[in-house]
């Protein structure tokens, strides 16, 4: 069985891999320590939505870029 330090390290690494900043990681670890799991769930759902909004924004930008380059090629600009 992993000790508490190992568990904290694994959780911290996972939160870091998700892209959370140090403040967000600290907040999550505190919620876990204090067993505020409903609050943690709301926080993570909100963060997920933030990431998803970014994906959508970049997807729209890629679509615009693709259309622009397509139009240039079609009109002999490239």
Descriptive overview:
The protein has three helices and no strands. Helices cover 82% and strands 0% of the residues. The termini are far apart. Helix 1 packs across helix 2 (22-33). The mean pLDDT is 94. It has one domain. The chain has 78 residues and is mostly helical.
Short description:
The protein has 78 residues and is mostly helical.
Keywords:
single chain; mainly alpha; elongated
| Helix count, DSSP H or I runs of 4 or more residues | 3
Query: What share of the residues lie within helices?
Result: over 70%
Measured between the Cα atoms of the first and last residue, the distance is: 61 Å
Number of strands: 0
What is the string of helix and strand elements?
Answer: HHH
Write the layout of secondary structure elements.
Elements: H1 4-17, H2 22-33, H3 37-74
Helix pairs in contact: 1-2
């Amino acid at each position: 069985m992993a000790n508490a330090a190992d568990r904290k390290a694994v959780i911290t690494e996972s939160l870091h891999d998700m892209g959370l900043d140090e403040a967000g990681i600290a907040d999550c670890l505190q919620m876990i320590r204090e067993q505020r799991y409903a609050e943690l769930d709301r926080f993570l759902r909100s963060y997920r939505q933030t990431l998803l909004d970014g994906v959508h924004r970049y997807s729209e930008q890629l679509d615009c870029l693709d259309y622009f380059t397509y139009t240039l090629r079609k009109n002999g600009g490239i």
